[in-house]
């Protein structure tokens, strides 16, 4: 039976996606995690030693599973393990390999639920629940996020600094309005912050119970 799939995507890089994934893993014991990483056969434009995965790309997507293959101190996958994931799968692929990589990783999941970090796989698969993460101090939205707005189930505004100031969140949401895609998004999905994280977790649990009951 397919596990419940909870997707955690982001408007842009460094929005707090991994932090939210870890919070969910702590609240959902026994769940697994999948990290989706898209690469290119060239420099990724950032610090190569820190993030470039070009050397790992091949004719087929690379899917690493298990602690020995995916644990690295300070890396996203290492943080998943630290948060209590029962298994972690890391998919490294080109754009054309995303579907195959995700399907391979999903076939290895043995838990009742899995949290997938990334937007790109939603072009090829449907999540049971999708959380879009945004920073309240930035309105930049990357193309992969725009393409999946109709799949978003909840918007999570991550912390900026030590606290998420209510006025900062209000100003961020006000800044989104005025563009039809975001107006529709805010009309139909609930918005959460760190202060209401427990409510978001409760919603994820409810969606999991409903999805599991339908399979």
Question: What this model shows, in words?
Answer:
The protein has a single domain, classed as Rossmann fold (3-Layer(aba) Sandwich). It has an eight-stranded mixed sheet, sandwiched between helices. The termini are close together. The chain is α/β, with parallel strands linked by helices. The longest helix has 18 residues. 37% of the residues lie in helices and 19% in strands. Helix 1 runs parallel beside helix 4. The model has no long low-confidence stretch (mean pLDDT 89). The protein has nine helices and eight strands.
Blueprint (SSEs and pairs):
Blueprint: E1 4-10, H1 17-27, E2 32-38, H2 48-51, E3 62-65, H3 67-70, H4 76-82, E4 88-93, H5 98-108, E5 113-117, E6 129-134, H6 143-146, E7 154-157, H7 166-176, H8 180-188, E8 191-192, H9 197-214
Parallel strand pairs: 1-5, 1-6, 2-4, 2-5, 6-7, 7-8
Antiparallel strand pairs: 3-4
């Amino acid at each position: 039976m397919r596990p419940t799939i909870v997707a955690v995507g982001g408007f842009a890089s460094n929005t707090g996606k991994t932090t939210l994934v870890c919070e969910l893993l702590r609240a959902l014991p026994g769940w697994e995690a999948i990290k989706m990483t898209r690469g290119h056969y060239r420099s990724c434009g950032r610090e190569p030693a820190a993030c470039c995965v070009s050397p790992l790309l091949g004719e087929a997507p690379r899917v690493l599973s298990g602690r020995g293959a995916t644990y690295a101190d300070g890396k996203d996958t290492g943080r998943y393990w630290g948060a209590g994931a029962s298994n972690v799968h890391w998919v490294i692929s080109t754009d054309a390999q995303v579907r195959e990589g995700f399907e391979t990783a999903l076939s290895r999941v043995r838990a009742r639920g899995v949290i997938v970090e990334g937007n790109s796989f939603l072009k090829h698969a449907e999540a049971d629940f999708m959380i879009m993460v945004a920073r309240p101090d930035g309105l930049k939205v990357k193309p992969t996020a725009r393409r999946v707005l109709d799949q978003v189930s909840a918007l999570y505004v991550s912390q900026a600094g030590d606290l998420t100031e209510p006025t900062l969140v209000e100003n961020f949401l006000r800044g989104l309005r005025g563009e039809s895609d975001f107006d529709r998004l805010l009309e139909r999905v609930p918005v959460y912050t760190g202060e209401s994280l427990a409510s978001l977790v409760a919603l994820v649990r409810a969606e999991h119970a409903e999805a599991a009951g339908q399979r």
